[in-house]
Amino acid sequence: MPYYIGDVIKDPNSLIARTPEKFEETGIRVELGTCVEGIETDKGEVLLAGGRRLPYDMLVVGTGAKATLPDIPGTTQDGVFTLKNLRDGINIKEYIRGNMCRRAVIVGAGFIAMEMSEALRNLGLETSVVYRGELPVKKWDPVFSGMVLEEIANNGVSFIAHNSPVAVEKGSDARLSLVTDKEIIETDIIIFALGVRPDASLALGAGLATGESGAIRVDSSQRTSREEIFAVGDCCESYHRVSKKWVNIPLGDIANKQGRVAGRNIAGYPMIFPGIVGAQSFKVFGLEVAMTGLDEKEAQESGYSPAGRIIWGNPVARSMSGGQKLGLKLIADKGSGKLLGAQAVGQSGAVSRINILSACLWSGMRLDEIGYMDFAYSPPFGGAWDVIHTAAQILEKEL
Amino acid sequence: MNRKLVVVGGGAGGPSAAAEAKRRNSSLDVTMLERGDFVSYAA
Fold first, then answer.
1. I need a labelling partner for A317 at 20 to 30 A (CA). Which of A1, A11, A399, B10 fits?
2. Is residue A119 part of a domain?
3. Within a domain: residue A292?
């Protein structure tokens, strides 16, 4: 969606995988603009706004996630947005065009905030990111977060650290002003990108169990605590194959897979969703940023004794790299030597390394195995010893 | 009577579930409900 707002993607329809008409052609009824107010599990009915009732034999709950808005005055004004669904994206783009916005403020510094900062700069807006902490994308090692900060700063984004919003007010020389605990920032548009929370309210109302994450509890068939009700996507939990815990990681690729698994089980073809390893990536200006698995703190909380190490290498053979650097951090368990997590940042080659390391996590590989794994070597794509080999070998010695 | 499947939510997971269930078992009576004005979109 940030690519649509930033005009990299021109047509919002290209973001739609399948239109309601396509669903209808395959015999699936689609009702848009239809709010579900409750699930009556004893009768097997969903209760719709306006009092209509719809009977079901089986039900799928895919209620998604809700964007977090801070509890401060003024957030209902025109020009204040969150970014969660396609409608939000279209509204933001239309608002910027329709009001000829020149200045934008993004509150929050996660990966959506970073993607949005690039999108808004692409549109030529003066863009500030306001964040209560010190560095953006705090899930990554501070060294890598520092590189992300440098990248956005080099591209004209001003990063305003250690500022917490306290109110949104009318501006004096711009439409709005964001009042923080330290400053007043005048702006034409404010986008709150403070993350999302699973929307489990309908499920809770129906008495379905939720997990520690606040998301709907499911088993590997995507069944909830009631046999005839399934849950999929951002509203439910997923089994994390490294931490061996049920977690909520709201990403579209996971939702698609869980949906298909639920669909098969509903149709009578049993299938298991095998879980996730927490792989994710984003691009910000000229940087690829990616991670998979656990960081040291999560590893500790999952009962491992982790050790981590950052190694600097090249995305391609050094002779062809033109000085491009690739930072790779590996985290492994001191006891077993198993890989627990990885993070990478560079102008190129970061995501491809993280994909490989996700497969290593998936199958539970140790560093000594990863250090000699066979890759598709050729100088334009990596060194004879890839940065993955080097990092695995160095960290293994230190365990 | 065909068995009734109701899908609440049309973002990504819901549409995948509806499509796969219907594909595998065409006798299912499938209805997908979405509060917004789009289904099956990439965020």
1. A399
2. yes
3. yes
Closest residue to A232, CB basis, from B13, B22, B37: B13
Do the Cβ atoms of B6 and A28 come within 8 Å?
no
* Counted domains in chain A: 2
Q: ipTM exceeding 0.95?
A: yes
Gap between the Cα atoms of A177 and B35, Å rounded: 32
- Does a structural domain hold residue A155? yes
Residues in chain B with CB shorter than 8 Å from the CB of A41 are none
What average pLDDT is seen over chain B? 93
A18 contacts in chain B (CB < 8 Å): 15, 19, 39-40
Q: What's the farthest any 2 CA atoms get from each other in chain A?
A: 70
Tokens of A222: 């995507």
**Residues B29 and B5 sit within 8 Å (Cβ to Cβ):** yes
Residue A153 has pLDDT above 90, yes or no: yes
- Average per-residue pLDDT in chain A? 96
Domains contained in chain B, number: 1
Indicate the length of chain A as a whole number: 399
Q: Do B14 and A256 touch (CB under 8 A)?
A: no
Q: How many other CB atoms are found less than 10 A from the CB of residue A240?
A: 21
What pLDDT, on a 0 to 100 scale, did the predictor assign at position A319? 87
Check B39 against A20: CB less than 8 A apart.
yes
For residue A333, the distance in angstroms to the closest alpha carbon of chain B comes to 34
Q: Determine contact, residues A137/A110, Cβ cutoff 8 Å.
A: yes
pLDDT band at B1 (very low <50, low <70, confident <90, very high): confident
Distance from CA of B1 to the nearest CA of A (A): 11
What is the sign, positive or negative, of the torsion defined by CA atoms of A208, A214, A219, A222?
positive
Give the tens place of pLDDT for each residue, A167-205: 999 999 899 999 999 999 999 999 999 999 999 999 999
Q: Give the range of the structural domain holding residue A365, as residue numbers without chain letter.
A: 280-398
> Pick from A194, A212, A228: which residue ends a domain?
A194
Domain check: are A186 and A299 in the same one? Answer: no
Residue B1 lies in domain: 1-43
Q: What is the pLDDT of residues A279-315, one digit of tens each?
A: 999 999 999 999 999 999 999 999 999 999 999 999 9
